[in-house]
Design brief:
The complex is a heterodimer of chains A (281) and B (423). By secondary structure, chain A is mainly α. Chain A is 68% helix and 1% strand. Chain B folds into two domains: 237 residues, 3-Layer(aba) Sandwich (Rossmann fold); 135 residues, Distorted Sandwich (Coagulation Factor XIII, Chain A, domain 1), CATH 2.70.50.60. The chains are: A mainly alpha (281), B alpha/beta (423). β1 of chain A pairs antiparallel with β4 of chain B.
Chain lengths: 281, 423
């Protein structure tokens, strides 16, 4: 069974449509990589087009959050930051966290936001949440520059561990995508997701070592339970790769496994319901 | 003919009432359904609230065919198109499509108002399934076709609606698929551009590509298509040469009525501002009739509910000819009594007086529109009423009995005098 639906050059390809028929999934997605790029680009462009401060929001958001955290958690609460200046300590965690939270927020409503598109033209629906996550990657790359500037400012040179950063970035993307697939597909059917999303994000942040060090978590089995949160391993990894501290061990493996399971489940759920999106949305 | 370009086999689509339109549910509702499902009685009720928008439809068309899909509103035309474009899955049956499929269900799908014309060409092209290189190579042709050269770097939100539609159609028209599925998108744009669009579509089908065209406009259908499929209540009622099928559609007597009423306001056409209650054609003798003598005038009566205190409402009646072409629209703003005056809530009747000696013999349909508050909103119900005009002795055609063209047939005065001066 082939896709044919505007996805490839003219040729004698046949597309078959049946009640149960599935499109070819990931293979079909590969045929729409240009559409994915265009939609990502549109999301980025449109987001900053009418903002007075434009793209500088991509810097301001992590910067302001970091300042607030430094004052509240670093100064007032005096949380331990593993010997690293607290601003660096929190920004290293905010990089992946804001990628994750931003993806949830943007991807969660993405299918509903593109309802007009979905009811008028066919393309693999996966492209929509993927583009939303992709647009967040753009903000992430900008905030990496902010992080580099801050490291120079505090005179904290990166260690060889920074070479592992792409791996942890990938892990953050996988976690973001996994949850985004679930939320975006669920939101088509249950608009409750839109209302619950701010709470989910907030609670999830406190369940992740963003403002505090993971070393506050008691050792032993509790640490493993804590690591089931995909973002726990990712954030520890980012901290270790950027500013040092305890290297992520078995926790990262647990987080990654949880993340991959969530992704596989999200993908399967998405594929199962995507054909009815246009009828339901 | 070799392999068919489109083969449809016992295709069906079932909608559960309520999942159409406001389809999304809340978790609470779903939980409630889950509980109800436990009770066996709930099963029957759910079966009753299902409708088949399309049922057991089969047909085949060869490559290069231009097929018109016609039928009244709600006959399943759009559903068929949505299945063929894979927007929605069928409930039963199977479709085979041979070749690249391009669809045009709405012009400007995916256009973003904040982006410029140039950016939207690329974005829209990608959404419709074009590669970037392909769009780049056709870019100049698209721009030329759309006649928007000077505004390429202006955000499309500043475009006039005409420019917007032209650009959107231009992108889609250059998609060059081997199967093109088109919904009635030509109802937009000015007359000259509509001609251009029709021309482009004709070109597409002459190039040996397959076209499926859903339309109410029988003139366009006859011009563009060589075959037609007539749908009635989701089932294929006729399939064959375009002229025969269109004729069958137009002679389908059951769909013509001199009176329509909607006793239940909740199900009547309209919205929270106003709803239609009834409409009828009243002949010269005061009786409700669908048969009009061409010499006589008649009244179009429209009853409607005003649901908001102080609203300013009006009615437009549109009369369509035998080929679905719009002959005229008449607006109630010449009504000295209630036009542009705030109305209390309640039931109103507007009457449009149509003069005699105006229409030729043939079948006509009437669509109604209710609008309000300085034309700022409106809703429209198509093909509400139908009537047939009969010419009898003494009609405007006089003693001539042969074929006669023209969408209207008024009685003009003629006089002749001998002017060569000799007596």
């Amino acid at each position: 069974m082939k896709t044919g639906a505007g996805s490839r050059a003219q040729g004698p390809d046949i597309s078959v449509i049946t009640p149960r028929g599935r499109s070819s999934g990931l293979g079909e997605l590969a045929g729409h990589s240009e559409l994915l790029l265009f939609l990502t680009w549109r999301d980025i462009k449109v987001r900053y087009k009418q903002a007075l401060l434009g793209v500088s929001w991509a810097v301001l958001q992590p910067l302001l959050t970091m300042i607030v955290f430094s004052v509240v958690f670093g100064r007032l609460a005096g949380l331990d930051s593993e010997g690293v200046p607290y601003p660096l300590f929190s920004l290293a965690a905010l990089l992946p966290w804001q990628l994750f939270a931003g993806a949830l927020q943007r991807a969660g409503g993405s299918l509903v936001g593109n309802a007009n598109l979905m009811t008028k033209v066919y393309f693999p629906r996966l492209v929509i949440p993927l583009a939303a996550v992709g647009a967040c990657l753009f903000d992430f790359l900008i905030s990496i520059v902010l992080m580099a500037g801050l490291m120079v400012f505090y005179g904290v040179p990166p260690s060889w561990a920074i070479l592992a950063l792409p791996l942890f970035t990938l892990a953050a993307l996988v976690a973001a995508l996994a949850v985004s697939l679930w939320l975006s597909a669920l939101n088509v059917r249950y608009r409750d997701v839109q209302h619950a999303l701010p709470f989910i994000t907030q609670i999830w942040m406190y369940a992740s070592p963003v403002a505090y060090s993971a070393s506050y978590i008691p050792g032993g089995p509790w640490r493993m339970v804590y690591a089931i949160n995909p973002m726990a391993g990712v954030i520890q990894g980012f901290r270790w790769a950027l500013v040092g501290g305890a290297p992520p061990g078995i926790e990262f493996l647990v987080s990654s496994a949880a993340s991959l399971l969530l992704l596989a489940g999200g993908y399967l759920y998405f594929r199962r319901v995507e054909r009815s999106f246009a009828d339901v949305v | 003919m070799s392999e068919p370009a489109v083969r449809v086999e016992s295709l069906g689509k079932r909608y559960r009432l309520g999942t159409r339109g406001t389809g999304y549910r809340t978790l609470r509702e779903d939980l409630a359904t889950l509980v109800r499902r436990a009770a066996p009685a709930a099963r029957d009720r759910s079966a009753a609230s299902e409708i088949w928008a399309l049922r057991d439809l089969s047909f085949e068309i060869g490559q290069g065919t231009a097929l018109a899909v016609i039928g009244r509103n709600g006959a399943g035309k759009s559903t068929l198109l949505k299945i063929l474009t894979r927007i929605t899955p069928p409930t039963t049956g199977r479709v085979e499509l041979r070749g690249r499929v391009g669809s045009l269900l709405e012009v400007g799908t995916g256009f973003h108002p904040e982006l410029t014309g140039r950016e939207n060409i690329f974005l829209n092209g990608a959404i419709l399934g074009m590669k970037r290189a392909e769009i780049r190579s056709k870019f100049d042709t698209i721009v030329q076709f759309a006649e928007v050269e000077r505004f390429l770097d202006t955000p499309v939100k500043r475009y006039s609606s005409g420019m917007y539609v032209r650009l959107a159609f231009a992108v889609a028209a250059h998609l060059e698929p081997s199967i093109l599925l088109v919904d009635e998108v030509l109802a937009v744009g000015d007359a000259r551009f509509q001609q251009k669009c029709l021309g482009k579509m004709g070109e597409v089908s002459r190039e040996g590509r397959t076209v499926l065209f859903v339309s109410h406009n029988m003139i366009a259908v006859k011009k563009l298509c060589n075959m037609a499929l007539l749908l009635e209540e989701g089932e294929g009622a006729a399939f064959g040469g375009v002229l025969e099928v269109v004729k069958a559609y137009q002679h389908d007597d059951t769909s013509w009525s001199a009176e329509r009423s909607w006793p239940d306001p909740a199900r009547a056409p309209g919205d929270g501002r106003a709803r239609l209650a009834a409409a009828r054609i009243r002949g010269a003798d005061g009786s409700v009739t669908a048969d009009i003598d061409s010499r006589d005038g008649f009244d179009i009566e429209v009853d409607y509910l005003n649901l908001r205190e102080g609203a300013r409402l009006g009615v437009t009646a549109m009369i369509f000819g035998p080929d679905g072409e719009c002959i005229l629209g008449s607006i109630s703003n010449s009504d000295a009594g209630w036009h542009d005056r705030p109305r209390p809530e309640g039931l109103f009747r507007s009457v449009c007086r149509v003069p005699g000696d105006f229409f030729p013999d043939g079948r006509f349909s009437i669509s109604l529109m209710i609008w309000g508050d300085g034309y700022s909103w409106s809703f429209r119900e198509d093909e509400v009423l139908g009537f047939t005009v009969h010419e009898t002795e003494g009609s405007a055609r006089g003693d001539y009995t042969g074929g006669m063209d023209g969408v209207v047939r008024p009685r003009f005065e003629w006089s002749t005098a001998r002017i060569d001066g000799s007596h």
